[in-house]
Structure formats: structure tokens, C-alpha cells
Amino acid sequence: MSQTLRSVVRGTGSALPARVMSNQDFEGVVETSDEWIRQRTGIARRHIAAPEETTVSLAEVAARRALEMAGFEPADIDLVILATATPNNTFPASSVQVQDRLGIRRGFAFDLQAVCSGFVYALSTADLYLKAGMATRALVIGAETFSRIVDWTDRGTCVLFGDGAGAVVLEAMPGEGSNADRGVLTSQLRADGIHGDKLYVDGGPSTTGTVGKLRMEGREVFKHAVGMITDVIEASFTALDIGPDDIDWFVPHQANRRIIDASAKKLGIPPEKVVITVEDHGNTSAASIPLAIDRAVRDGRIQQEQLVLLEAMGGGFTWGAVVLRW
Ligand code: UT7
HSE-up of 181 (CA within 13 Å, CB side)? Predict the structure, then answer.
């Protein structure tokens, strides 16, 4: 086997706003009920950012925690990719603001916009830079404050989303080029803009000159979700010549418990291997996977050498999967 570089996870971290909003708290905001939200989505509560908590401030905390677990200093990092659809400003990029707050004065940083698939896209992108030798240690962050772009009068969307951030530190390390290597083993990314009007924000710098509010045809998104998710996971299995039994942990994007359960069932992944945080976090878009990863690492579920499957689907549509050995 030929020597190859692999992007290995060295640390994880996360951050959640202090304020928790329960389903009951929504009963006075829109016409809804705890029972409807739980049954249709599996969500019980979500964290909502206070005015001084931003995508950048949450990302900074998550990044510091990931660096601490890795035993790295900020100066060890030469690439920061921040996946977000809710940046602090149109520009400069929130990633550059995080890089500055961490005191990193070298390397490069950029934001990546693939909405809920942002973390999967960012991990895949960082992997390519590390493998190409353009960077050696990367911070890959998913951070969002969707509470700022939801329409708080639309019960079909405002109950679904939450705020938060998650981060991983990747380091380029030598591997053999086989499935036994630690690190990212395959990434499968997809996009199809024909679905753009099913989940979008009705504003932007070049159109309305405003930030806009999130609009979603939930039922339409739901209809496509399971098929797209399972397609891209099956492509990952084919690429590595593995099957569901080889997976130790399935960490899906946390949008809806019913989508997660149906995808796992269709793929033949048993419930005990699925990491689920949607009950406590709601849908945090690009932050949902790294938030779930950090929980499962810190509670001892995800262990070194285990095979972990990530998957996401969201606005665009964009979707994708990553398989990595921890
Ligand atoms: O992360 C990006 C990807 N996003 C997703 O994956 C979201 C995908 N979609 C979903 O998760 C689900 O479609 C929702 C949770 C958004 C909605 O669940 P659903 O089972 O598809 O419900 P529905 O949209 O078909 O609505 C059923 C009923 C409607 O009433 P009628 O028209 O049947 O009288 C809605 O008006 O539920 C009503 N409804 C609500 N009722 C109480 C919608 N939202 C609420 C609410 N509380 N919050």
C-alpha cells in the first residue's frame, strides 16, 4: 500500500447559548403544542442565543474546547473553515473573525455556505487541503444562530431551529491508504438547485439588501430527505467496499427524529448506533453534526479506531456523507 496523508480528528468541542427554550415556551408565541412538536419532530427544547451571543462567539468557544482536547495551541492551526448560513456580517468572513479572536496570525480562513450540509462540506474541504499539503492542522467549525433568521410568527418553522456551535481539530497524519487508516476515508457531496424554493431565506445582500427570513415547505423537504440521505451513504459504502455492519456510530444531521429513524432503518443501522441530539438542540443547521459528535466523544461513546458515518441534507438542496475512522 502506498503512503498517503489522512485528516485525523484530534479534538472536538462545542458551545450552546445559556438560554433554553422548551416546547411549552412556544405555546404563548405561536399556535402550537408540546405534543405536536415532539410527535412530528422529536424536539423537546433548543438553545436560543442572547443578543451578545453570536455565531462568532459560539464558534470561538467551541474551537477553544476542541483545541484544548487536542492539546494544541491556536498558533498550531493553519486553516480555519467555518460552515455557517448565519455569519455575523456579510463580510469579513466569520471564520476570519474567529481566527482573529483565537490569535491565529498565519495560514488561511474562509466561510463555507452549504446550509445544513455545511459541516459535511467543510470537513471534506479541509480534508483535501490537508491531503494536498496546503495546511497541516485545521479547525473545522459549524456555527449558527438560526433564531436570528426564523420568522417568529411562522409555527411551521420557528419551533424547529436552535443555536449553537461545534468544532473539530484535524491533523494531517500518515496513513497506508486503506480503510484501516485513522481519519477521513471518503466524502460524497451532492447539490441540486432545482429544489432551491423549498428551503431558502427571502433576502440577501444582492437582492433585497436585507438579511431576510427562513422559508420552508417542510413536507416537500421531508419527502426528499430520506432518499437523498440514503443514496449518498450507499455511495460512501460502495466507495469503501463496506456495509452498515462496519459502522460503529452514525451521526446524522439533526433536523427531525422521524427522518433520522427512517434513514437508519432503510440503511440497516440499528438504533443503538445512532447519535441523537435533536431532542435537546433542535435543528442547528451546520452546527448539528459537530454538536452531536462532541457529545458522543465526551460521554465516551465514540472511541479511537471506530468507524463513524456522518450525513446531512439541507437548503439548496445540498447533501453529503463522510466516513471517517476516529
Ligand atoms: O435541516 C434542513 C432540512 N429540514 C428538514 O429536514 C425539515 C423537514 N421537514 C420536517 O421536518 C417536517 O415536514 C415538519 C416537522 C416541518 C412538519 O411536519 P409534517 O408532518 O410534514 O407536517 P405538515 O407540514 O404536513 O403539517 C401538518 C399540520 C398542518 O396543518 P393542516 O394543514 O394539516 O391543518 C400544519 O399547519 O400541522 C400544522 N403545523 C403545526 N401544528 C402545530 C405545522 N407546524 C405546526 C406547529 N404546531 N408548530
Answer: 24
